[in-house]
Amino acid sequence: FSRNRNPRQQRRSPTPSRDPSTGPSSPSSPNPTSGRISPANANGKDQKKPLYLCSPFADAALVKGNFKTIVMLPKYVDIMEWVAVNIYDFFTNLNEFYGVIATETCTAQTCPNMSAGPFVRRSLNYLWTNRDGKQVTLPAPTYIDYVVTSIQQLIDDENVFPHNANHTFHPTFPSTVKTIYRQLLRVYAHLYHAHFDVILHLRAEPHFNSMFAHFLAFGREYQLLEVRDIKGEVNSPTVGVGQLWERWKERGIL
């Protein structure tokens, strides 16, 4: 395992680049070919069981067995390096997956809110905190573009993600990667909620499920994810992808 990593190449977001700290900009143009219905237009009622929780889709995977075996820290590898490299891979893979799946289907018209479940579930509707510290509602593609842009800026900053062994990790690195993890989780949750039909159409559910299970297992192994971020509000029924988390735990995947 080499500590001398090459500088990261700039990754392009699927939507036009914007400054994530300045708040929302003009909404994306609607896709006239899209016939999808926005999850936010569900008349405030819970819908039937999501496809991603139905068999056989929920159990489709490329990797069999428990994901804990592939997230263990390799011998002689610095834990900060291990976390940094995996964060980069999770971000890159999810960004590219989103670019393939949702560029045409995730628009301001189909996804006017960044959500991961019925609009009435407050814990499943995500707000963006702008430069003034105010939380604002954004269309999902705008929110995700802000996430991609902000994470890319962090990865490109050698003070946050050192590119070689001559630089040490900043003391705030653990808190930084926790924030990154929370935002990536929200992107995963939105794709499961709003675009799993596209994933099924492409027959990509085994790949996507394995990516997400790996992401969850790694996050829990290194305490990057809070259970409440996955399962929802404390002392409330598990919602959204939290149900997938519980299903996979019962089956020994996580």
Automatic annotation (TrEMBL):
Coiled-coil segments: none
Keywords on record: Metal-binding, Zinc
InterPro entries referenced in this protein's UniProt entry, alphabetically: MOB_kinase_act_fam, MOB_kinase_act_sf
The keyword Plastid is annotated on this UniProt entry: no
One protein family per Pfam: Mob1_phocein
Basic residues compositional bias, start-end: 1-11
Binding residues for Zn(2+): C106, C111, H190, H195
Protein's name in the database: Mob1/phocein
Compositionally biased spans, kind Low complexity: 12-36
Sequence segments annotated as region (Disordered): 1-45
Keyword Oxidoreductase set for record: no
